[in-house]
## 1
Amino acid sequence: MTIQPRYLALLLLFFGLMVLVGSVPGNANALSDRFGDKPLHLIAYIGLSVLCYRAWLAPRKQRIVITLLMIALLGLIDEGIQAALPYRNVSVVDWCFDFLAALMSVGALWLQESFSTLHNPHAKN
């Protein structure tokens, strides 16, 4: 199993930016009011999931498991940071949406790779 540094760097940069934006007083509430809290979680964590999945050069099943575990951990870290901020709150439902985004992403990536393999039998899993 090999890591692709550019995807891992983008993953960490995006997560850091997301946490930073959400840590500014009033920012998270303003974004949630404008776009909805759950859609924001889905969009952000779909992006993180795709970057995480692409960061690993490994068999497909391993990339799926790693991605699901990493996103679960990042979601917990995100909620933990929110717990430490007096103007934010922790939500198990938010973490569930983060994980749902990861499930949707790896499912879509699995389908995309499966169809690619059907059309190109020499493609790697």
Note: The mean pLDDT is 93.
## 2
Amino acid sequence: MRDGAPQGIYKVQALDRAFAVLDLLGESEAPLGLAQVASSLQLHKSTAHRFLMVLERHRMVERTSSGKFRLGLRLFDFGNRAIEQYDLRERAQPHLRRLVAETEETAHLCILEGAHVIYIDKIEPARSVRMITRIGASNPVHCTSVGKAILAFLPEDRVADIIRRTRFERFTHRTIATPEALRAEIEKTHRRGYAVDDEEFEEGLRCIAVPLLDAQRQPVAAISVSGPSFRVTAHKLPSIANHLLHCVRGIAMDMGFTSASRGHRAAWTA
């Protein structure tokens, strides 16, 4: 770090350099050696080496048998996920609109990122009492119906990792506060095929969610219906869950997740 340079500026410069390394490797037709990376970016070898080691640790770059560097397959995964998410949002919208028309409550489309869910779309009904959420916001998995819906259909190793990273912050007196309680809720969700947030994130708000499964029956997203608890009553949950199930089946078919639509049916009837 340069003397007197604010730490924040240094961190931004470090990010810029890391992306410069990725850009350089992406533009090259062949893997590059450490000296080539350092020379092309006008970096000291030790600095270039540190960036490459961090990127390699995160699988953003990989080393060939000759010791040279090229882009890692994790970037391929990210690219596929980005394309899928844009396509998912576009294909889901007509189904979400139909869901909102059927339930007269707010519908959300969410994806998993770490131990949080991110809201990538939201459609509201013409009601006076609405949800105060925004596209791009994120919430913890342990207190959201969409988070629990996704967790219930993930492989055990991923569930264990996410639970280890969850802080179990309390938002209301109903918030799930322990790993054991979350695991019990995940099991319950898997059995019945849908998840419920019963005023666990916000007082007076009840949400119900169903996962969207791909062709391998892995959750790629979750769809929820949310509203004030005086409207989204416990009595209405099975009916709303049925509307959600039809919604995710339609999205799965449009996305080409043909075997997943059968998987949703199996999960619902289990």
Note: The chain has two domains: 7-71, 78-269.
## 3
Amino acid sequence: MTDHATVLPSSGGRTKFLVGGIVLLAAVAYLIVSNLLNQQEYFITVNDLVARSEELTMSERTIRVSGAVIGESISFDGQTLSFDIAHVPASAAEITDEGGLAEVLHQAVNDPAAQRIQVVLYNEPMPELLQHEAQAIVTGELGADGVFYADELLLKCPTRYDEAVPQQAELP
């Protein structure tokens, strides 16, 4: 009779595989989270931007701000577009309570006490929808000089909402 030694598989190989898998998963998770944090945009109101200007100037975060365009401040020289926006509420419920978007935009540009910021865009064409009381949504960074340097501009024309205001005002 021959003596056959039973060879049990070593658990060391399985452990190395598990440790390697965990390290790989942790590295992938870290890369995903750090990438999301670096590309994160903060959506704030003009009031928030003004109140947190020192903090937001020091950060290199991309910020998205919404406001009502003040028509008399629009300036375009072919290369540089600048205009001011006034604070509008961020909450849809608050906008509805105040009579709808057209009414909120109208009130914002006619309120001399409303917070305002200057927005500047470089090397962009003059948008057709950029007009008095339009809603502007700008994405960019706040400069140390208090000017918001935008990389992207989205506009909502106020005339789209004019017909909805009387209906909203009639609601109890």
Note: The helical segments are 11-38, 46-51, 53-58, 92-97, 101-110, 164-170.
## 4
Amino acid sequence: MARSMRRGKTDTIGVVFPDVSEAFMNRILAGIETVALEQGVSLMIATSTLDSSAEARNLDTLMDRSIDGLLLVPYAPFRGEAYDNRAIRRAMESGIPSVCIDRYLPGISTHAVIGADRDAARLTTEKLIAAGCRRPAYLGFDLAITTLDERRRGFNNATKAAGLTDPSEEKLLTERNPDSPDIMEWLTELAGTGRFPDGFLVSTDGLALKLRWLLEKLSPAGRASRRTGAGRERSGPLIARFGEDSPYFPTGMISVRQPHEELGRRATKKLLALIAGEVILQNQQIEIIDMEIIDDTQHH
């Protein structure tokens, strides 16, 4: 404590997550902890459990604890949802160094480490098109966060560049309820039009697994055979998603492996550099990390 007082620092970083029950949040935290342990920095962690008012309380509490810096994965409100970002603004404007992870808040946050979501979505959609998909669809949550906005842009950029004559479909979910029938209702409606998608890009792993299960239940559109770009016959639409297979349970999907631990490591290093007084150039304030695309469709 005496050493911290002399240096004017506490060697403590605040970390605020919306929810750590999701696997990718745990992997981000693992990356943060790796660097924190190496540098002898303590972590003060708080979660909002997907509640914006809890996020505000956590931020205010941490800012009162004399932390040296703040790592933040911002809460993601549904589009149109009432969301008070004053606590985030106070934190970002307090003078305490801060870095956002995985997503950022345009007009508020100045430092962030994110994945190359738009490029990954574009390249993955191009894989669907190269495999023979001519009516791809996008499935995701209608959340007002940069991560999902970039994935939609990447999907739309790829379909537009391919000059597909059929307009691309999309379904944006407006609730997190896993028991909601919204996806099945959408698929049933599409099946009735005779314009059922032959491929899907799905924004999250959980949604992709649910979609795959529903497609197996849906008949005949969900199990209809089609020709791939390689001339092989395949049952049902292709699915690509942001997520990855367990080595023991291959799904046959195209996967975008997200560098969550690396996001946590890079964000913590960036924050420690800011705490040390290093100047980060404007064009380096938002650091973008590439993602790996894995095509398991040939082995399923």
Note: The chain is about 40% helix and 20% strand.
